[in-house]
Specification:
The structure is a homodimer of 256-residue chains.
Chain A lengths: L1 E4 L9 E5 H10 L7 E5 L5 E10 L2 E10 L7 E8 L5 H12 L3 E6 L9 H21 L7 E2 L3 E2 H8 L4 E5 L6 E2 H5 L15 E7 L7 H9 L3 E4 L7 H15 L6
Parallel strand pairs in A: 1-3, 6-7, 6-12, 7-8, 7-9, 10-12, 10-13, 11-13
Antiparallel strand pairs in A: 2-5, 3-4, 4-5
Helix pairs in contact in A: 2-3, 2-7
Chain lengths: 256, 256
């Protein structure tokens, strides 16, 4: 069944309305007919199977047949803070990390970030990133669209680090803390099978030129742990995908 | 120090010769001078620090100061068999997976592979993939360039599966084997600290349209284990990066 994210105001108790690009896709690409079934999600975890009852110009109405329990979301929220990379690498980070299972993206500007946006360009970029996150979430059969923040400055990023249950900053240093060692035993108080509140983990990834020593010092003071992803030097956009995969793998969310 | 891969015939006992694009890069991009130091690798694990002694048109000669022990290579060889994806996605797979630490790439053609190359195009592609692997290995500070094979057919792929110490095929099925469960305890006979032969693990990733049931049956008969990477549906090129990261993470090679 084809999946669509439906804005909350179109996701009613017994019907959903598919509009805009999604209505076009359903009508002209999928060539849906009255009676066909689709899966709808409100992007925040509410999900239902619905049957097409009405097709009009630019709008499809479907009646909800069954509410379903979203089952494809990780039990852990990973927030990816990525220093704005050059070119369209942020697009790749958002697409791939949405597929893998990220919960939130926080682009930010640090000392050696080369990319700068003016207000207009920033707005356009954030809009574009939202669209990429939505499409990747649909493709990956997720029931939540990850949140994409507008770029933070460094101080604001450090401030929100305290909201996470665990916060890491990727930094290569001699004899630094290895990521796996940092992850093992992190949430041991969450007894197997026991219901615990959803945890969130923040991972902060530097720009192409890396972090300054001052930034690492400030991050440590803000409670972030500097960790290494091993001996090979990863490009900034690769580090995001790899760091996220390691966290979800460790907590049994990548097939475990 | 800048790193270069030097063909074996130019990597002598006491000197190295940097030629072609690398000589141009060293001379014109890095603006090297006599006395500058570089790290050279023969791409198969031999590595040395060398000092520039001579700069000529299109060639730089450097004398070896110190042989160094390559330290950035995983202790486990991961072979990535990727059904030829559409567009330039294979480029991304080779670039990212080289950074992460793959040892060998085996592109292959399966039932639902859409992409087909004629002999001339295949030759050009393989040449391009080699170049991407070399550059990514340099960037990641690896001392080995992963091997990139010319595309295999399905039978040949199944045949070489028996050469691997463990072989997996990514396939989503109800109640299938989870990847983490499959990896845990895989090489328990390799006692900690004990010297054992280098292990190799093959992971096979299908095309956009997935594998046919017949192919999965044949793969299982050839000794490949079907495994799942979890509940979210990954694009074919994302699956390669994620699968590789999980293997290297499990065996302590992603910062552990």
């Amino acid at each position: 069944m084809q999946r669509y994210f439906i804005p909350k105001e179109h996701f009613l108790d017994t019907t959903v309305r598919v509009t805009g690009d999604d209505a076009h896709h359903l009508t002209h690409v999928m060539r849906a007919r009255i009676g066909d079934r689709i899966i709808c999600s409100d992007g925040s975890g509410r999900e239902a199977i619905a049957q097409v009852t009405e097709m009009d110009k630019g709008m499809v109405v479907a009646s909800i047949i069954e509410h379903v329990e979203p089952a494809n979301e990780p039990r852990i929220d990973v927030w990816i803070a990525q220093s704005l990379p050059k070119g369209d690498k942020m697009d790749a980070v958002i697409q791939k990390c949405t597929e893998i299972g990220a919960a939130r993206f926080i682009p930010f500007v640090s000392e050696r970030t080369v990319v700068r946006y003016d207000a207009k360009k920033e707005e356009k970029r954030v809009e574009r990133w939202h669209k990429i996150a939505k499409e990747a979430a649909e493709q990956a059969h997720r029931s939540r669209i990850p949140v994409v923040e507008a770029p933070f400055d460094w101080e604001r990023l450090l401030h929100i680090a305290s909201w996470a249950d665990a916060a890491f900053i990727l930094y290569e240093k001699e004899n630094g803390l290895m990521f796996r060692d940092a992850l093992r035993g992190l949430f041991d108080d969450a007894a197997p099978g026991g219901r615990t509140a959803k945890r969130n983990v923040l991972i902060v990834i530097g720009p192409e030129g890396g972090f300054s020593e001052r930034e690492i010092k400030e991050a440590e003071e803000a409670g972030l742990k500097p960790v290494s992803l091993g001996k090979r030097i990863l490009r900034t956009e690769t580090a995001a995908m790899v760091g996220l995969t390691c966290i979800l793998y460790e907590f049994g969310e990548m097939g475990g």
